[in-house]
Amino acid sequence: MARHRLRFSKTGRAVYISHLDLMRTMQRAFPRAGVAIRHTEGFNPHAYISVALPLSLGMESGCELLDFEVIDGTPLADLPALLTAKMPEGIAVSEAYEAERKVKDIAWLRLAGVLEYDTLADTSDMAERLAAFFGQGSILATKLTKKKEETQVDIAPLIREISFASDGVHRIRMDAVVAAQNPSLNPSLMLDALRQNAPDLEPDFAVFERVEVYDGGMGVFR
Amino acid sequence: MNPKLQRILPRVQKPARYVGGEYGQVVKKAEDVRVRMGLCFPDTYEIAMSNLGLHILYGVFNEMDGVWCERVFQPWGDMEAALRDAGVPLYGLESGTSAGDFDILGFSLGYEMAYTTVLNMLDLMGLPLRASERKGLAPLVIAGGSSCYNPAPMADFFDLFIIGEGEEVGRELVRLYDAAKSAGLSKAAFLLQAAEIPGIYVPDVSVGRVTKRVVADLDKSYFPAEGIVPSTEIVHDRVALELFRGCIRGCRFCQAGYVYRPVRERSADVLIEQGKSALNHAGYQEVTLLSLSTSDYRDLDGLCDGLLDFCEPRKISLSLPSLRADNFSMDLMQKVQKVRKSSLTFAPEAGSQRLRDAINKNVTEEALLESLRVAFAGGWSAVKLYFMLGLPTETDEDVVAIAELVNKVLWTWKQHATNKNRGVRLTVSTSCFVPKAHTAFQWEAQVSMEEYSRRVALLRESMKSRAITYNWHEADGSFIEAVLSRGDRRLGAVIEEVWRKGGRLEAWSEYFSLERWLAAFDACGIDPHAYANRERAADEVFPWEVIDTGVTRDFLARERAAAYADKLSPDCRKACTVCGVTRVCKGVDCRG
């Protein structure tokens, strides 16, 4: 396990940076900031960094975690300012600290979502119907495996809590706590479940944001 | 961000290409600037952002007071369709502003296959294609880059062309535009003034030949030390250091070798400092050296030593492209591969010594094999060899000689390889020769596509070893390139017709269609073979002669005659061949 951890946010235009590209961006940010970090050994050395729980393209997050190891003695407290100055627009480091817990202890994620219904002026009824749909004991969704085979998953156990509220004309806000890993619940699968089971509840467009990460006991994970 | 874009981006491939926001981008306050520019590259983000010229000009223009220069690129097909569906015009990556609202749109025109993409981008911006249909001063649509040495095919679409290196003349032009805009000048009045700037060609306005501009002192020229670092992977994802411009060699087929004369080196000390500052800024793990013939750089050892002193402790790798076989230095390769190792690439261009002499590719078989002997003994086991088929004077004997040369390379490996268990990978590539304007072969006919295929088949039959991989480029793209590169004003209609039938991004095989071009030639009543496959009379006046590269027509004719006599010409350091370029760059030592 790497010794140090960063918490950073990914918002605005940076949400379109893919996980792989984010790793590259992070790897470059350290030398830009003049901070030496541990590299892998061997013929093709690369920075020893890892980002917990890859974020889907298009999602904002205020709680991304990156594990790494400073080897030149730069004080961790200096890193947020040093690194944020060297990041693309939309990536900001909020804290750097000694990593004490393992990333595999992360169990739950808090998601905020905005669902847009272009032809629905009054969304209060829709909010109720969405809550009823996601409140069912079993919600089957079909997804493609890595081998491009269709498989059915029940996403109901992956949702710990969920609520919907009308947010004026055409918009509904979602607040949910969902499984973070093994398996995780990608919010796009929630939209798939709507399309497959209740197409009239499917929004015309939706964006989601990762708000917080928790351990199994719903304690904030750092 | 445009809410329509927000809905489009999650649905397209690699959306990071379309949002800007990268580290190093320049954002200014719109109310503080007088001139808004779009630096337009008629290809995808990955290609555009790999272009050093683009980074240089971006820095040059953004350094100017009152000027804000953004980037505008051609989206991939899925994004283009989505933009058209949603009615979102093409925009500058930095601000998201519609590019059609900018003052100046400067296109980088580096290869002919990008011509239809230029029209497509203008259309995506909501602008009329033809210069005559754009009445106002803004947006001024201009072009620069090596394809502008024959401006005729695209002359209907651009308001003006920058001929030669753009750093200095580009600044002068933008200053003139700034003044014209405040004075409320008409487009016609502005273009009359612009035509007075040396190095600017205004179609139908410029009088006499327009002479290219060159930067005399590369040590003092702009270097983008704090350039944009893409957030997504591009083709050349590394720091590039420009060792020199021009080339001492004078290969007779090479347009770059003639039009970028004279050779001008940047000093090693300056390059090392530029490398350090660019690497510190970007955080890249790789730096490469850029020029037409890197091993001709006088102090290559000193430069590499200086860079490696910086790179090695930081685990940054240094890569050396386009080495010449005649002065390949194993010492140098050993040094460079200390950090990371790549395969070796050589471009003998022709298989027989006679043909290599005819094209003035001053490389001998002995030198190539000696270099490879050293390389194989040093543990290298992957070699790429590039050749052209269809060069003037080429016979079947010359084609078969490629196979013979490759077999000798294989034999050299068998004799000298230190680790034979690893095997050897020889990759042979051929492309179809394209005669280019402003070269010794500007009079030559291109071989037909059928003839090229016959020569490919002949070469294929002659190379049987399983260690050899033979890749040949199809001739259809080279044929269209040959038409366009020596085209005249009549081709504007063809280019427009191809675009109207869906042509764009044609440097990509998935977008190129020979049939579409042939149909467009037909529709416009033009015989493409008269451009590509016709040998020109010695005294024919060429459309591209409105441009003076400094190199004289007499010199090119002498070089052509030497080719037919299989005679070599010396490089610029050995002896002056009186090419004429000193007329346009007084005070430059053209020996580099």
Topology:
The complex is a heterodimer of chains A (222) and B (592).
Chain A lengths: L3 E7 L8 H15 L16 E2 L8 E9 L10 H6 L6 E8 L7 E11 L7 H11 L5 E5 L5 E5 L4 E8 L4 E9 L7 H11 L7 E11 L7
Parallel strand pairs in A: 3-10
Antiparallel strand pairs in A: 1-3, 1-4, 2-3, 5-9, 5-10, 6-7, 8-9
Chain B lengths: L2 H6 L26 E7 L3 H4 L3 H12 L3 E7 L3 H10 L17 E5 L6 H10 L15 E5 L15 E3 L3 H18 L3 H8 L5 E2 L8 E2 L27 E4 L1 E2 L9 H5 L4 E2 L2 H15 L3 E5 L9 H12 L5 E3 L10 H7 L7 E6 L3 H6 L6 H13 L4 E8 L6 H21 L8 E8 L16 H14 L5 E5 L2 H11 L5 H10 L13 H10 L5 H4 L14 E2 L4 H12 L28
Parallel strand pairs in B: 1-2, 1-3, 3-4, 4-5, 7-17, 8-11, 11-12, 13-14, 14-15, 15-16
Antiparallel strand pairs in B: 5-6, 9-10
Helix pairs in contact in B: 3-6, 5-17, 9-10, 13-14, 14-15, 17-18
The overall pLDDT of chain A, averaged over residues, is 94
Q: What percentage of the residues of chain A does DSSP assign to strands (E)?
A: 25-35%
Radius of gyration of chain B, in angstroms, nearest whole number: 24 Å
Summarize the biggest pleated sheet of chain A.
8 strands, mixed
